[in-house]
Amino acid sequence: MRLPIHIVTGFLGSGKTTLLRRLLASPALADSAVLINELGEIALDHELVERVDESTVVLAGGCLCCAVRDDLSGAIRGLLGRRDRGEIPCLRRVLIETTGLADPGPIVRTLVAEPVLRHHACCGNIIVTLDALHGDGELDRHAESVRQLAAADFILLTKTDLAPDGRAAAAEDRARALNPVAAIRRASSVDVAELLQPSGDDAGARLSMSAAGELHHATESHTHGAIRARAVCLTASTPIDWSAYGLWLSMLLHCHGPRVLRSKALLHVAGLDAPVLVESVQHTVHAPVHLPRWPSPDRRSRIVVIVDGLPVQSIEQSLAVFCDIEADLQSVPSGGTAAYS
Amino acid sequence: MCALCGMLAGGAAAAAAPGAPLFQEPQDRIARDRARRIQLRLANQVLRYYRLRLEPAAGGGWVLRGPTGRAQVLLSFAEVWSAAERLSGRKLDPTDTGLLAFVRAERARAP
Predict the structure, then answer these.
(1) How far apart are CA B71 and CA A244, in angstroms?
(2) Which residues contact A70 (CB under 8 A, 6 or more apart)?
(3) How many CA atoms lie within 13 A of A212 on its CB side?
(4) CB contact under 8 A, A276 and B46
(5) Cα dist from B13 to A111, A113, B26, B62, whole Å
(6) Which residues contact A66 (CB under 8 A, 6 or more apart)?
(7) Could you read off the pLDDT of A216-246 as tens digits, one per residue?
(8) Which of A15, A38, A276, A294 has the fewest CB atoms in 10 Å of its CB?
(9) Is the ipTM here above 0.95?
(10) What residues of A are in contact with residue B5 (Cβ under 8 Å)?
(11) pTM, whole model, 2 decimals?
(12) Domain extents for chain A?
């Protein structure tokens, strides 16, 4: 079984290290190794993670997503080697704490494209911290924060105890509108074990909820700033041709990969009884996962694409033509998308 | 890994959730050949807009031919879009309204 590698990210000061300290104190995270990436030449965060031992590796002097990707693959290969030699007797997972400015896309690509890593390790969940007090402003001003949230499997609201009434709920609404398929939890009360679960079934269930309109979507639009992210939510009731969807997604990512921040699709594939979950982060596509069953009686395909600056209608029309489902494709529901900048 | 997983993930860029079952390659040759034929037909509906043609290569892989007769051998389907851009000298954009109208017309003409 391949070693799951979870990514803990979030904007500067959003509480990643505090979260990591809490997670590592949990028995559910015994047998974990931690890679901590810091921007400065003098690493500090690892001093704050209490369990600094042979399973903690510091990657300092540059950001994982751009400067030290070779260090990342080398560090993971080093851990795998030490596990195989018995120097780390039990290694069940690796947690990477990124810098606050990291884009998760290139990190995921490193994990799945590097030949040794992809045979011995796999991408786990992307866990993103969002400061309930300042997150709103960070999303307005910093493209990095939007990219992190768009890539998330879990969004953890931090500092909710410091946020005035309504501020945490507003941050949650905004996060949900930007990434309708991520699970949003309060960091102070999150179930640690849940964060480590493979996302397949849960993601399918969240996509079901999204299509049923049970998620609340913010409708406000912000028009200034460096990035314009929008979640496109589509459903189709007729089964989708697997080849056609693959052709469309591969061409879309080839052309617009950096602007397709995230996609998640629960597909009713023609000829299959159970759904197939297909996910991507920017250019990187995860291998499709067969879910054992539909998470709800609703058998429609649900496709969520989070794009940066691409017109929503062009995505919808393109998918409709490629998959030949023009008459069947529907946006979900009005207000199901939200623009950020 | 099935033909489509190969196309989606490009072979080299695939990861699965821990413990999750992967899409299995069709076991019988008939199913594999059928998947490849569908992939070829759909890709050529798109590539014709750029005056390109994709053909299966003997023993696996693909051959992409350009309008002037230039050809490129591809080991996997994941190489198609990059090669098509090199041969056509154009950016291949699936949201291009001209391309979408062309594919609709191709479908309408198909028997």
Answers:
(1) 24
(2) none
(3) 12
(4) no
(5) 9, 5, 20, 20
(6) A103, A106
(7) 333 233 332 456 778 788 889 999 988 889 8
(8) A294
(9) no
(10) 287-288
(11) 0.71
(12) 3-198, 214-331
Query: What CATH topology corresponds to A214-331?
Result: Hypothetical Protein Yjia; Chain: A;domain 2 (3.30.1220)
Q: Do B94 and A289 touch (CB under 8 A)?
A: no
At position A104, the amino acid (one-letter code) is P
Residue A1 has pLDDT above 80, yes or no: no
**Which residues on chain B are in Cβ contact (under 8 Å) with A314?**
95, 97
- Whether residues A317 and B95 touch (CB distance < 8 A) is answered with yes
The token pair at A331 is: 């946006």
C-beta separation of A294 from A275 below 8 A: yes
Tell me the pLDDT tens digit for each residue of B3-61: 445 445 443 333 333 333 333 445 567 766 777 788 899 999 999 999 999 999 887 78
CA dist B74 and A193 (Å) reads 44
For residue range A243-256, what is the model confidence (pLDDT) as tens digits?
889 899 989 999 99
